[in-house]
Amino acid sequence: MSRSESLAAYLRAQARRSLDRVEANDGGRNARCALALLDTAAHAAGLPEDDPLLLLLEEAGCFGPLGGEEFDPGEAGTRLIRRWEGGDPQELLRSLPAVIAV
């Protein structure tokens, strides 16, 4: 699986997780998050393997120490992704390396 496919699969899984959450007073937040993550997943799936965003995520260790494992943004990256409610898909992807490095 390519890095772009791995990233897209992770984002789709997080979108499903968000859709499955039942919170009485979320005001539509989970649905907005799911839609934003699906949008970002579609964007990520189309990235070429040499895209600078993928290279930044690889340098941040999101694809394992050798760069060939499944996408895993760690705890801090997962928190950011799970709270994402929209915006430019590249904005989320650009934000991940800084959050992960902290």
How would you describe the shape? globular
Q: Could you give the distance between the termini?
A: 28 Å
Number of folding domains?
1
The biggest sheet amounts to: none
- Quaternary: single chain
Overall pLDDT confidence = 91
Summarize the structure.
The protein has 102 residues and is mainly α. The chain has helices at residues 3-20, 29-45, 52-59, 74-83, 89-101. The chain is 65% helix and 0% strand.
SSE inventory with pairings:
Layout: H1 3-20, H2 29-45, H3 52-59, H4 74-83, H5 89-101
Helix pairs in contact: 1-2, 2-5, 3-5, 4-5
Can you characterise this structure?
The chain is mainly α and 102 residues long. The protein has one domain (3-101). Helix content is 65%, strand content 0%. It contains five helices and no strands. Helix 2 crosses helix 5. The longest helix has 18 residues, at 3-20. The N and C termini lie far apart (28 Å). The model has no long low-confidence stretch (mean pLDDT 91).
